[in-house]
Amino acid sequence: MNKTARAHTNIALIKYWGKADSKNKLPLMSSLSMTLDQFFTDTRITVSEKNEFFLNGVLQAGKNYQRVFTYLKILQKKFGVSDNLRVESTNHVPTAAGLASSSSAFAAMAGAFCACYNIQLSKRDLSKIARLGSGSASRSIYGGFAIWQKGFDHDSSYAYALDETPVMDLHLLAIELNSNPKKLSSTDGMLQAQTSPFFIPWIKRNEQELSAMVAAIKAQDFSALGQLAELNANEMHAINLTANPGFSYFEPDTIHAIHLVQQLRASGIECYYTIDAGPNVKILAQLKNVKEIIKQFLSEFENVKIVNASFGPGLSYLDQ
Ligand code: ADP
Ligand code: DP6
């Protein structure tokens, strides 16, 4: 009881960006991600006298509090319980900065909820309930590469492991250009994106891009994986720009980072980028090029923080 759950953040290589059903967080496309070793969330839930949510030691009110307790009430209803709860969560990942904090947050919260009530669930069922908190959290139940199959209802929309312990030479360098919380959440951004004339073509391309990505992973083909991930991210951001009204998560430094990746590639250092709902950039690279890429980024950007991540594990519980 009351164990701390730890979930690692995942970054999508084939992105989830559009919902068929907002209430149940059913996506319009399947997605594929890499769970990271360097970023994670620890969450503990205990029955208490009142509902309280502490994030990084600070008592939360407003939107963050609402989101957590709206979610926990859904779980309480599902499992027939109704106590007040104290939620304590620590993010070892910047919050709401496009580094996928909600993926580890709601996977850890689903795990912590089950620990609090001593509920035993399969990974598949954990994935489904994590999805109800944040779609991307469905994938953070697993380590390595995970696929979230879109499904068509609560029972058919869950993630599964493609390979929990990959041996592929793949690093993800998180280039933290601006770690302040963004103004437009992923939830709101993806809703607005659905007004783009390119939204339907984006959905139509999903199956083809997902199978190509699975093939690249199975073949351990870094070039194919990087090219596809970069294309998929560019498509997502093109949809944002062409929405009505159009918007972008990019900042001037984001464009600068894209140019640097293109220059590095032209000079024979193979690397690719992927970008989520925020200004920060993630570089996909092989070990042999990691040092040089970090050196180049440090010389081009002032005050940049770079984290060299690789594959992380799935949901776990900490010994206490
Ligand atoms: P990102 O995933 O890029 O960090 P999102 O907009 O998808 O941004 O999600 C960020 C939101 O998720 C935060 O504004 C907050 O409401 C919620 N969140 C983040 N971390 C936690 C946490 N540890 N516990 C509960 N909710 C969290
Ligand atoms: C760009 O999972 O945060 O990171 O389901 O509304 O909580 P909600 O959205 P969220 O969106 C993630 C968007 C993304 C791509 C991805 O992780 O697949």
TrEMBL record:
* Top-rank taxon, per record: Bacteria
Q: Which residues form the Mvd1 C-terminal domain?
A: 178-305
Pfam families this protein is in?
MDD_C (PF18376), MVD-like_N (PF22700)
A molecular-function term among this protein's GO annotations: diphosphomevalonate decarboxylase activity
Query: EC number(s) per UniProt?
Result: 4.1.1.33
Protein family per UniProt: Belongs to the diphosphomevalonate decarboxylase family.
Q: Under which name does UniProt file this protein?
A: diphosphomevalonate decarboxylase
Q: Which organism is it from?
A: Lactobacillus bombicola
Q: What is the lineage of its organism?
A: Bacteria, Bacillati, Bacillota, Bacilli, Lactobacillales
